[in-house]
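Journal club prep — side note

Before the paper discussion, L.F. wants everyone to see what a predicted structure for a comparable chain looks like in token form. Sequence:
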Amino acid sequence: MDAASAPFFSWRFTLRELLLAVSAVGAFLGWSVVVYRDAHRQRTPFCESVDWDVEFHDVLKKFGDPQLPHQAECFGGRGNGDGYEFRQYRIELAPPQCDSFMNASQKQIHDRIVACNCSIDAENIGFEGDGGHWFAIGYHRDSVMGHAHVRLIPDAAGTFNLRVLVFEGRKL
């Protein structure tokens, strides 16, 4: 056999085959990124362990009121390494107790964050007239940062709505 008659192997693809191959590789890479992010989603120990029902019940007991806070609403979501949780409670407090209740709540949550080996980044407290009392605590641990926002808002029935929003995500 001479060189001219030897079988020749050629890589020839049609445009349709090339488009199909690129689409398959792109879909696989996209899926693997989603799986990687889900596998490396991190939470701080504070976010994983806090039980808001217990936290606020403990604060209310300090005021001699063994009432359980009535949870009116709760929802949350997680995805791509970020997550949030929202809770709303209805509690009965005398208006003069609001400042003390919020200070005790802030101290309890601050202590819980520190006990979970998280570092406090920022801490603010305020009052907005009819908008109620609020405080916010920013914290982080390793590559995850989070914020806890708590707000006490008076309602028309003479009770208070206690709203809690916590969210965490990776530092950029």
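L.F.'s comment for the group: The first helix runs from residue 15 to 39. Keep this in mind when we get to the figures.
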